[in-house]
Design brief:
The complex is a heterodimer of chains A (114) and B (116). With 114 residues, chain A is an all-beta fold. In chain A, 0% of the residues lie in helices and 55% in strands. Classes of the chains: A mainly beta (114), B mainly beta (116).
Chain lengths: 114, 116
């Protein structure tokens, strides 16, 4: 089955540690994205990548880093510089169909930092 | 800066009722608008995507309309069912974003509960 996988589903870390969230897609999509969701707020864009070996900062990139070495993979590292890392993290990818870029989402990773 | 607002924040209706969810955006220069459904603790499922040149899209019991000039979109759900209970999010993308993707700005969502 084609889709987007994120692992792990739940992640617990101590303050001051870096942590990497995995995102893999087998949809052959060019573009991939990372969003953060906090209670009562909409999703906010952290980073996005339109092609392999290229990525751009979104609205809240501080304290995060990404890489895009393969088309199907877009891992997100939450560094110790992120002041409030506890959140629900969602990965997405998009294709171009008739000039339209519809985004598809993974199941998410809930990160708790104490 | 684009801002997206969804009203109401929460809605509870009896099964079988037809309902409308609202989404408004401040900058009418959009490329497309997408409606999503999110179940608790889960990712987002795309429901409907309306291109800027379109007025509406339909899928089953769902109908989404777009009025760019007024910065509004509505999601109409016919004959609601308990399985429709979820949070509904709308998101817009800006024009001129070339390449292999598009950036979405999300609203905060409407939490819908359909009761038996």
């Amino acid at each position: 089955d084609g889709g987007i996988t994120q692992s792990p589903k739940y992640l617990f870390r101590k303050e001051g540690q870096n942590v990497t969230l995995s995102c893999e897609q087998n949809l052959n999509h060019d573009a991939m994205y990372w969003y953060r969701q906090d209670p009562g707020q909409g999703l906010r864009l952290i980073y996005y990548s339109q092609i392999v070996n290229d990525f751009q900062k979104g609205d809240i990139a501080e304290g995060y880093s990404v890489s895009r070495e393969k088309k199907e993979s877009f891992p997100l590292t939450v560094t110790s510089a992120q002041k409030n890392p506890t959140a629900f993290y969602l990965c997405a990818s998009s294709t171009k169909g008739q000039g339209v870029y519809e985004q598809y989402f993974g199941p998410g990773t809930r990160l708790t930092v104490t | 800066k684009q801002e997206v607002t969804q009203i109401p924040a929460a809605l509870s209706v009896p099964e079988g009722e037809n309902l409308v969810l609202n989404c408004s955006f401040t900058d009418s220069a959009i490329y497309n608008l997408q409606w999503f459904r999110q179940d608790p603790g889960k990712g987002l499922t795309s429901l409907l995507l309306i291109q800027s040149s379109q007025r509406e899209q339909t899928s089953g019991r769902l109908n989404a309309s777009l009025d760019k000039s007024s910065g509004r979109s509505t999601l109409y759900i016919a004959a609601s069912q308990p399985g429709d209970s979820a949070t509904y999010l709308c998101a817009v993308s800006p024009p001129g974003f070339t390449g292999g993707g598009n950036k979405l700005t999300f609203g905060t969502g409407t939490q819908l509960k359909v009761e038996l």
